[in-house]
């Protein structure tokens, strides 16, 4: 293990995977990415002080990830996207809520597109496995004990939540379930009209 890798995992546990990737949004930005048993650590590789460029994301907040190839067949890169929903404080109040955080990396270590995709898939499997070990249900059952892929049926009453329930599903819940890889069926409920006459 080289010195950079040893320093990268300090205070977060032993590093099980390490790689240097570019960000999908900005290919000029290179990052050192480390996966520990509990965290994903992303460190921008630059001359700035270390503390300002380091992000530690808890795998307890990870809901899913995926590895894929881009649309450009001439590009040998593979991509890794990891979805997090950490608790964050509202800047104007004392409340907290889960806010979406997406980490997207471009893997181009090799000229062979299949090898790059295999590396991205290796990372995706490792993130999913470690994330599942961090997830617990309230009754003490580990999430990893639940069968995968999961399926769910959602009942949405469009009149509930000030009439915003369906909008909430369309704008937030549907995306979260897709990111987590949960197949689901939406059932929209409605009030039964009483057509009987007295």
Automatic annotation (TrEMBL):
Gene Ontology terms: biological process: cellular response to growth factor stimulus; negative regulation of apoptotic process; sphingosine biosynthetic process
Molecular function as annotated in GO: lipid kinase activity
InterPro entries according to UniProt: ATP-NAD_kinase_N, Diacylglycerol_kinase_cat_dom, Lipid_Phosphate_FormReg, NAD/diacylglycerol_kinase_sf
Coiled coil: none
GO cellular component, one term: membrane
Residue ranges of domain DAGKc in the record: 147-198
Entry protein name: DAGKc domain-containing protein
Species annotation: Champsocephalus esox (pike icefish)
Taxonomic lineage of the native organism: Eukaryota, Metazoa, Chordata, Craniata, Vertebrata
């Amino acid at each position: 293990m080289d010195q950079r890798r040893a320093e990268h995992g300090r205070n977060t546990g032993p590093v099980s995977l390490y790689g240097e990737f570019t960000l999908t949004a900005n290919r000029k930005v290179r990052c050192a990415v480390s996966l520990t048993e509990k965290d994903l650590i992303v460190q921008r590789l630059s001359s700035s002080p270390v503390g300002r460029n380091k992000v530690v994301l808890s795998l307890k907040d990870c809901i899913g990830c995926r590895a894929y190839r881009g649309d450009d067949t001439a590009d040998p890169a593979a991509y890794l996207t990891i979805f997090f929903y950490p608790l964050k404080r509202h800047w104007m109040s004392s409340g907290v809520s889960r806010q979406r955080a997406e980490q997207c990396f471009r893997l181009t270590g090799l000229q062979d597109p299949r090898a790059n995709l295999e590396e991205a898939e290796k990372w995706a499997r490792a993130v999913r496995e470690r994330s599942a070990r961090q997830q617990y249900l309230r009754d003490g059952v580990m999430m990893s004990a639940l069968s995968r892929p999961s399926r769910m049926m959602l009942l949405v009453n469009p009149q509930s939540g000030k009439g915003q329930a369906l909008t909430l599903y369309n704008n937030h819940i549907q995306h979260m379930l897709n990111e987590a890889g949960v197949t689901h069926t939406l059932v929209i409920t409605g009030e039964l009209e009483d057509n009987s006459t007295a």
